[in-house]
Amino acid sequence: xxxxxxxxxxxxxxxxxxxxxxxxxxxxxxxxxxxxxxxxxxxxxxxxxxxxxxxxxxxxxxxxxxxxxxxxxxxxxxxxxxxxxxxxxxxxxxxxxxxxxxxxxxxxxxxxxxxxxxxxxxxxxxxxxxxxxxxxxxxxxxxxxxxxxxxxxxxxxxxxxxxxxxxxxxxxxxxxxxxxxxxxxxxxxxxxxxxxxxxxxxxxxxxxxxxxxxxxxxxxxxxxxxxxxxxxxxxxxxxxxxxxxxxxxxxxxxxxxxxxxxxxxxxxxxxxxxxxxxxxxxxxxxxxxxxxxxxxxxxxxxxxxxxxxxxxxxxxxxxxxxxxxxxxxxxxxxxxxxxxxxxxxxxxxxxxxxxxxxxxxxxxxxxxxxxxxxxxxxxxxxxxxxxxxxxxxxxxxxxxxxxxxxxxxxxxxxxxxxxxxxxxxxxxxxx
Length: 431
Prior knowledge:
alpha/beta, Rossmann fold, Structural Genomics Hypothetical 15.5 Kd Protein In mrcA-pckA Intergenic Region, Chain A, six-stranded mixed beta sheet, five-stranded mixed beta sheet, 21 helices
């Protein structure tokens, strides 16, 4: 399938500067880039959508330059922000830059394992463009070619200037010049002729095109393409869960939590998200959706979506563990302990990490003491009240005596599964 057609069918195309770019990049052998500012030491699902744009260019044989904005973050992007950002220390920036580079490498490695495709990429920190450049040089090379008039017309800037209760510093006003010069350097040093971005970065991106045209009027043409802002069928911004970003770092968002995010996808969004966020052939996606529609309650589409995305981000092992934990926590109570008995040591650790709990080193202790230590109640009295209400379970058996002693014979596959009510689980490991 032609590159432009596939991007359109996968909902990854919004704007482009010149349609000729798609014939050029469909043939492969070209270089392109997108940028991530190191505001944190991990990308989130919003970045992941732009990343999937990049993957579709890469699978055609094009090379990605990932720009990690060590310099641009020290300036701050005004787009979509109500106020100035706080600066990070140089040590934190350096840590975040390295973490983002490592994360990209891991995700592309997982995609190679899934598809057999080799993805060529290189990470560049744009701080390298500016560390030996003084202010006068920057004004002469960049500032003289971009008018303040055109900068003030950009939507991201105009909004901050026109609204009476907002303002913009000269620092953030200059952000688009920095990003524009990034493109110039990549064009000159690496032959990059395309920047891809989210729709919110369009005006910053076209500043780079303007600079390239003025600095290299006889040179090869450069391009910009953007993807859409992704929202679900309810209008909620993609990648947010209860107001929080979903991260691509297992220490920030566990594989289980990312798996659950996609398991909770609305039926109306399953096909579009499979197209957006996976490299599954479109014919395969059609079959998944058809099976899903035969029995939507079985959530086949959500399971396939969650499995593929979590495998891409965290790897096959993490995806399998997340699926196992999901199966146990959402299984019927009559089947739950049978599934617990089948868990491997790594899967038990994943269940333990997700549910929380502790390692019990006492050879014999009461269920009340265990439940308090596990955080199911603040006091012995609170636990006894749960027992009286028949709301406390050990290995899916209701607790009848709060003073019941627990010994090593009560553990199943090395753990006790405590449940309060219908949905609160804690895992106690045998010490």
